[in-house]
Amino acid sequence: MIKITTLFLKKITCFLFVFVVLSALNACDDDSQTQQEQIQTDKQSTIQKVIPPEKSSIKQEKHTTKFQYTSKSKYGWNTIQRTGILRIIVPYSFQFNELLPRKSLSYDNTLKLIVRFAEDNNLEPVFISEKNFSNIFSLLNQGHGDVIAANQTILDSRKENVNFTLPVDYSIKQLVVAQSNQQINSIKDLNDLKIGVRENTSFWETINSIKEELQSNKEESMQDFDIIKLDGNLSSDDKFNQVVTGKVDAVIEDSNRLMLFKEYRDDIKPVLDLTKERPIAWAVRKNNPELLKQLNQYIKTEKLVRHLPETRQGDLDSIKKTSSVKTHHA
């Protein structure tokens, strides 16, 4: 009887051991399947495949479909490669029509470059757009995208929250007025002007720095101006329309971006350079050093192959120097 009982207990123990092992294996398979399903879901939730700019045609200007956010995931480089998707955060105004070939559009080349980077790494480039420019860094850090390609200037204040790549372009902050405006020849002519600027942008930082400098200057000839806070959802064209209709006297734009608008608008013009040349770069999350490394290596290679702008000595230091103003003559 004792032998039968002992034998029975051994069989029960063996059965329980096998059951536990099989349960553990099933759990691992479920986790793996769940992860694969998540990756597949991310692929299905993407907006649409970006048409390579080199293959674009004028007819594709109409393909400005509504953009939506992908699932919220803080992917590292290895996971990005597994998903096969690179989520590129851009302002809403960066639509397909702005990817079309232009005569002298340097910033357009940086968008083509990020698309080429994705395709060369067998990734599907997907644009994640945001109407309010001040939200793009939050979107990145919240995991709605992997990299920002929004013509953003490298600023010390921004480097606290993101890591910037090597420069992909350079630009100057320019004061833009209506074509008919003949009154501004120097910074002294800004007296009583209404200058429209979107908050939480490099333009906002630039114009407030100039205002503080003017207010601290004891010369009576150095006058003051009004900063009008513009709606963060305004596109660049909307911003220029504010100038043309007289709602504000002037706005600020990057020189490399302004070249685009000047190709189809003849009602605006730059009159003052408010800064020296500053570096433009892409941004990634601080916890994604491998993606940063891959992007920087690609930029270095492209500089040799496609003659991207080389690093200028002193550009980073000149970020703080916003008082050097150059006049443009129409």
Ends distance: 110 Å
Report mean pLDDT, rounded to a whole number.
75
Taken as a percent bin, the fraction of beta residues is: 15-25%
pLDDT < 50 stretches: 27-70, 96-105, 311-324
Structural class, from secondary structure content?
alpha/beta
In sequence order, what are the helices and strands, one letter per element?
HHEHEHEHEEEEHEHEHEEHHE
C-alpha Rg, in Å?
27 Å
Task: Count helical runs.
Answer: 10
Form type? elongated
Helix content: 25-40%
Largest sheet: 6 strands, mixed
Tell how many strands the DSSP assignment holds. 12
Q: Could you give a short description of this structure?
A:
The protein has 330 residues and is of the alpha/beta class. Helices cover 40% and strands 19% of the residues.
